[in-house]
Amino acid sequence: MHIVSYSVWGDIVEKLRIYLRWSACLIFVFLFGSLIYGAFAAPAPQVSLASAEAAPLVIIDAGHGGEDGGASDNGLLEKDVNLSVALKLRDMLTAAGYRVKMTRDEDISLGQGDTVRARKIDDTKKRVEIADSGSCLISIHQNKFTDSRYSGAQIFYSPNAPESEKLAQCMRRSITGLLQPENKRELKKADGGIYLLNNVQKSAVIVECGFLSNKEEAQKLSDEEYRRQLAFAVMCGFLEYKGSEGNNAS
Ligand SMILES: [Zn+2]
Asked: In the CATH scheme, what is the code of domain 57-243?
C-alpha cells in the first residue's frame, strides 16, 4: 500500500515537472516574441488606405491644357508640369486603393465655344462638374510672379465644404515636411477670383506646387524625380487627411 501510494505521487510530481517545464518554455517564447515585436514593429501610420469596396472617388485636376498653356517661364509651360505631376499622383493614389478620375489625362482643353474666352469659361465649368462627381478635388497648378525671389508651394482651399481647409492643412504639412522645410507660406481661402474653388461643392484644394518664375525652383520642376516627389508629398497629405476623418467631423 505504501509502495503503491509512493509510485502514484511520484507520477504526479513527474507530470507536474513536465507541465512546469513546458509552461516556462511557453512564457519564455511569449516574452521573447513580445520583445522582438516591440523592437521592430513600426507604429501604425495615421493614414488611410482605401478598401476596394468603398474606395472614395478622388478627382485629380491637371490645371490648364490644350490652347491654354497657363503660366510660362524659364522654359517651362505650366500645363505640362501640371499634367506630369497629376499623372504621377493618379498612379500613386490608385496603388493606395483609391478610385481616381482625371479632368484630363492628355494635353487638351475641356472647353467648347467660338472664342478663346468662351472655351475657357466652358472648360472651367466642366472641371467643376467633374469635381462634384467625386468625393474631393485635388487640382495641380504652378505659380508665377513678377518678382523672381519667391518660391515654394502655395495651397488654396474652397470656401464651400468646411473640410477643404483640413485637406489643405494636411497638404501643406506634408509638402513642407517632406520637401520644403523653409516654406512658411500660409494657406489661403480662395477668393472670388478662383472660379473652380468657388463653385465646387466638395472638399477641394488647389496645390500650386512652385514658382516657374524662380530659376532654381523651375529647374527642380523640370526634373522628373522632383515631380515624383511632389506627387508623393501630395498623396501623403491626402492619406493623412483621410486617416484623420475618423477622429474629426471632416
Ligand atoms: Zn494655373
From this structure: 3.40.630.40
What is the distance in A from the centroid of ligand 1 to the CA of 197? Answer: 13
- Cα 25 to ligand 1 centre (Å): 66
Distance 56 CA to ligand 1 centre (A): 26
Mean local confidence (pLDDT), 132-161:
97
Where are the domains positioned within the chain? 1-41, 57-243
- Contacts of residue 121, defined as CB under 8 A and 6 or more positions apart, other chains included, come to 111, 113
Cα-to-centroid distance, 140 and ligand 1 (Å): 8
pLDDT score for 103? 98
The pTM score is: 0.79
pLDDT for 192: 84
Rg (CA), the chain: 28
**Dihedral of alpha carbons 179, 183, 187, 193, sign:** negative
Name residue 82's amino acid: N
Residue 105 has pLDDT above 70, yes or no: yes
Q: What is the mean pLDDT of the chain?
A: 86
